[in-house]
Specification:
The protein is mainly beta.
């Protein structure tokens, strides 16, 4: 995200970071979502048995737009479309190496992680016909879904 759009950031505890947040890793005081941030949630672990078990997880990514500052929200659709494009670019290519970041330098675990391309849809709270009120009334939101696949690294690899 930092290389793709350095301006898309959020401030957490006084530190500016790229605007991607894994919801389960956020402290409870950060429960209110912000427009312009990609919020990632993971589903249950899925196991496909074979000679080497392949694991999968569903992933939902929620994001929203209120438009640009001073734009009265009239450009929020354009800003949401920009976020759609950013997400698609983040997810390409749809694979990476599995690395262990608990050490420096990170160690290649000899396995890969790959995923489906995101399917973009309306966020659950913004379906047609549902009236928005309050602070989020000028917000439009999207939820993307994809599935992540990976093999566990082989022991001793």
């Amino acid at each position: 995200m930092a290389a793709l759009n350095p301006a898309r950031t959020l401030v957490r505890d006084g530190v500016t970071v790229p605007a991607i947040a894994v919801r389960e890793n956020l402290e409870p005081r950060f429960t209110e979502v912000q427009a312009g941030v990609f919020y990632v949630e993971f589903g249950e672990l899925l196991v496909a048995e074979s000679s080497r078990p392949m694991l999968g997880m569903d992933c939902r990514i929620w994001y929203a737009s209120e438009g640009t500052a001073g734009g009265s929200g009239v450009d929020r659709g354009r800003v949401l479309a920009e976020m759609d494009q950013e997400l698609i670019r983040i997810c390409n290519p749809p694979h990476t190496e599995m690395l262990d970041y608990t050490q420096i330098p990170a160690e290649d675990l000899g396995a890969g992680v790959f995923w489906t391309l995101p399917e973009l849809g309306d966020a659950p709270d913004t379906k047609a016909g549902k009236q928005q009120r309050g602070a989020s009334a000028g917000r439009i939101a999207r939820q993307a879904q994809l599935r992540i696949y990976f093999f566990l690294p082989e022991a001793g690899a």
